[in-house]
Design brief:
The chain has 259 residues and is an alpha+beta fold. It contains 6 helices and 18 strands. The two termini are 13 Å apart.
């Protein structure tokens, strides 16, 4: 098992993910138990194919359909340990189709699907769970709550019990970055329903954030900061119906699981 800090150039930043390369799939109960034991936002598993890898992601409580930071972490392991001669890697996933990751200098560039976010009348639990009333709320895979300033996003103290009752996967909170933080937009992501109260850096959330802020700003290339306690930096580009998410990753540990 490798533990990689994704969307960071130094250990103890970004979002840690466990990556477990397998020769063949273990049973789902064992995969989930290992992820629960790791107690990280995500544990990623790979099985080799002729031209790439199968890829699955597990939170401490459930398997999920898409995860950005654990895909970045898995690509780091492929490029540094499993297939160091490769310049790109293709991952086959169960729900999100084929995902590709390409070396780009010190960064890794992921090609992900863009996700729509439609204006909605939010349930009371959004404001109650965030302890703040957003300027607007959109719905897609997650709820997207928009605020006016980065300071408002930083000040949110969520009630995870309330947020865990909402129908969608989680709640993204976002605001313009402003000159003081050097980013086009900032965000945080709360996903207590899946055992992740606050995700330090969430790549899949930026599949919704990128199209939203591209429309607001008129820019297709955006610099994003996820302003969790650990923090993370993402370079986001909207390419039609796809989103390129680019970031750095660094290894924290390597070990063996004994079961």
């Amino acid at each position: 098992m490798y533990q990689i800090d994704a969307f960071s150039s130094a250990v103890f930043g970004g979002n840690p993910a466990a990556v477990v390369p397998l020769d063949a799939w273990l049973d789902d109960e064992t995969l989930q138990t290992i992820a629960t034991e790791n107690n990280l936002s995500e544990t990623a598993y790979t099985v080799p194919l002729d031209d790439g890898y199968e890829l699955r992601w597990f939170t401490p409580s459930a398997e999920i359909d898409l995860c950005g930071h654990a895909t970045l972490a898995t690509a780091y392991v492929v490029f540094n340990y499993l297939q160091p001669q490769w310049q790109n890697v293709r991952f086959q996933t169960r729900v999100s189709g084929e995902l590709t990751v390409t070396r780009d200098g010190t960064m890794l560039a992921m090609d992900f699907p863009a996700m729509a976010a439609e204006p909605c009348n939010p349930p009371e639990g959004v404001a109650a769970g965030l302890g703040a009333v957003p300027d607007a709320v959109y719905a897609g895979q997650d709820f997207l709550a928009v605020f006016s300033s980065a300071a408002e996003v930083l000040a949110i103290e969520p009630d995870y019990t309330v947020l865990s009752t909402l129908e969608h996967r989680g709640v993204i909170v976002t605001a313009p970055g402003g000159d003081d933080c050097g980013a086009d937009f900032v965000s945080r992501f709360f996903c207590p329903k899946y055992g992740v109260p606050e995700d330090p850096v969430c790549g899949s959330a930026h599949c919704m954030l990128t199209p939203y802020w591209a429309e607001v700003t008129g820019k297709s290339a955006l610099l994003a900061h996820q302003v969790s306690a650990r923090g993370g930096v993402l370079h986001c580009t909207l390419n039609g119906g796809r989103v390129q998410l680019k970031g750095e990753a660094v290894q924290y540990l390597e070990g063996q699981i004994k079961i």
